[in-house]
Amino acid sequence: MNFVDWTAKAVEARILEMADTLRISPSVRGPKMFGNAMPESVRRYDESYGVQPARYRENASAASLGRMEQVWNWINALPSEADRKLIYAWSWVKVRRGMTISAFAVENDLNDRTLRRQIDRICQRIADNLNRIMLVRLNNADCLLSENQPDIASQTVTSEICVTHWRASDAKPQIDPALAKSRVIKPRDIRARHSAQNRSLGVRSR
Question: Fewer CB within 10 Å, N- or C-terminus of the chain?
């Protein structure tokens, strides 16, 4: 596992993804959500086509929902309530249509540049908190047993028996002199042996 330091831009991208996932998630609309008690009219197959316009609904994936909850924990861990409200409202305005960022800044008694500096400061603070948490985890004694270095390859083995049985790069196969009969393959003898086995089993050869 290779740990990469969090940056303000990376945190900002995750916050915007959180707001966009929240935007496309289904919301509760009260009794209107369940419709009325009147059943839908049953139409003939030649009359039903094109009666209602085609609709497409974008759904959030399970991975994006998990990352959304993770970003909520990041933002809720901020000590300042004003920063939490500002980052939530800013991200919601960024992913929705309607209000512009300039109008949002004016509504909060800020200009565009001041709002940008505030967002960068909050994202950098979240990134610093994440880096500090990961730094403490990687300095733990238990992490010495984990593979947190790139391109790890074992150079030694724990068993000495395996070392003695390793073959050199220029090694060639050797034949045991005690097995001289097995050194040469004789097809005629093999066919004769197979024929004798077949006769013992009662199989007629053609």
Answer: C
